[in-house]
Structure formats: C-alpha cells, structure tokens
Amino acid sequence: MRDIPIDEVDHLDRAVVAIRTDYPPGHRIPPHRHRRAQFLYSATGSMRVETADGTWTIPTRRAVLVPPETGHQVFTTTVSTRSLYIEPKAVPWFPRRCQVVEVSALLRELLNEAVDVPELYSPRGRDAAVVGLILHEIRRSAPVRLDLPLPAHERLRALCESFLDRPDIHDPLSAWASRLHVSERTVNRIFTTETGMGFARWRQRACVLHSLSLLSDGLPIAGIAASLGYESPAAFSTMFTRLIGTSPKDYRAASAL
C-alpha cells in the first residue's frame, strides 16, 4: 500500500500492515500515536522522531521501533518511508521506548516486497512467509544509540527544540541562562537532572546527531563542520568519532552499502 493513512486500514485482520509513504522536505507529522507497534524505515532521506522524553535520529537505511500507544511526532527531509504497523501481540519483544536499529540488506528487500502485498494477504503462502520473515529480521536487528534525551522543564525543552533546528557547537550556556532568567549553574543542573548529561555534552551530541542527516544527504564534510560552528573539519571529525565510534567519512561509506 502507498500513501494511505494507517487509520484507514488499522482494522484489517492481519498482524502486519505495510505502507510506503513519500514526504516533502521540511515536513512535520504532528503529535499522534498508534494502537499498533510501528517499524518506521527511512529508505531515502532522514527523519527525526520526537517523544515526551527524547528524540531519535533515523538516517538513510536505518529504522526506528515505536512501541504501541507511544505519542510521537516526526520531522523529515525529502524522505521515502516503509512503515510496518504491527499488532502488539505479534511482537511481545518490542522495546518499551523508541529504539533506532540497523536494517540488513535482506530486510531492506523484504520491506520493498511488503508494501506490494495485498491488504488482506493470504495467511498462508508466500506473502505470509515474507511478513513472518520480516518479523524475524526485525527482532535480530542491531540497536544503534542515536537518541538524545529532552528535559521535561517546559521552557528549557522549548529552547532545546529550537536548538535542534539550527544547532551550533558554540551556542553559549550564558545565552540559555539569560533566556530562562536563571543562572548558568541552574541550567546545567536541570540538564543533568532531567537528561543525565550536562549542557556541553548534550550540545555536542545534538550537533553530531544532526550531522547524520546532512551526511546522508551527501553534503561535504567541510560544509557540515562549518554549518555546526566547528573551526575545522578535523575538529568536527574528532568529536564525531568520539561519539559515534567511526569517522564521518567511514560512516557515510558504510551507510551507502
């Protein structure tokens, strides 16, 4: 199925409903929730999924697992998705909060097949076998730490969300404190209490996660570094490698496989 809202087909008596959807650049899917669990795969482009307690960056050829009844909103680049909406009883092993996962070459091909199976595919035969194999492959998908916690503090969260749209590695803590009319120490304390990391570490992680989408879009590494405020591509690469475990160049090459 293609470009069909899940609400129109949620009633189908099948464990999995597969839908392909294409989104324009800069699109926002407002806060919503699904009765079913969701496997949201970015075939092209990238996305950011936001819930009450954090955000998850989904680069090209990665996916995010969204548990049933989890309120979330989605921010996209020019992206083509493959969404699987899964009856909760079919995936009792699903995580309790969102989780980004790797997507194997086999699973990518299965997802492309799944969006072309009939709405009421036969519970026996090839289509059911494809769906069953997909669930096995999802369960064995390796998790990837591409999440960023968000504070519950209402005004600080608003600043965080604004920062995520235009991150800057040198955005000063003093400016945040001034906007909130509190001390820098207070801002840092709230960050540590509500996200588990101090302001500087949160800012670094936000910048690196933002860069994943830019890498997926093919932007030059030097341009990405400059857009985030790094003095040089080397400084950006050092921070990227420290947080992601591989260089931006190697990450991009691996993502293209």
TrEMBL record:
UniProt key word Acyltransferase: no
Signal peptide positions (record): none
Pfam families according to UniProt: AraC_binding, HTH_18
GO molecular function, one term: sequence-specific DNA binding
InterPro entries: AraC-bd, Homeodomain-like_sf, HTH_AraC, HTH_AraC-typ_CS, RmlC-like_jellyroll, RmlC_Cupin_sf, Tscrpt_reg_AraC-type_HTH
Chain ranges of the HTH araC/xylS-type domain: 154-254
TM regions (residue ranges): none
Keyword Oxidoreductase applies: no
CDD domains for the chain: cupin_NimR-like_N (cd06124)
Top-level lineage group: Bacteria
Coiled-coil regions listed: none
Keywords: DNA-binding, Repressor, Transcription, Transcription regulation
Protein name: HTH-type transcriptional regulator RipA
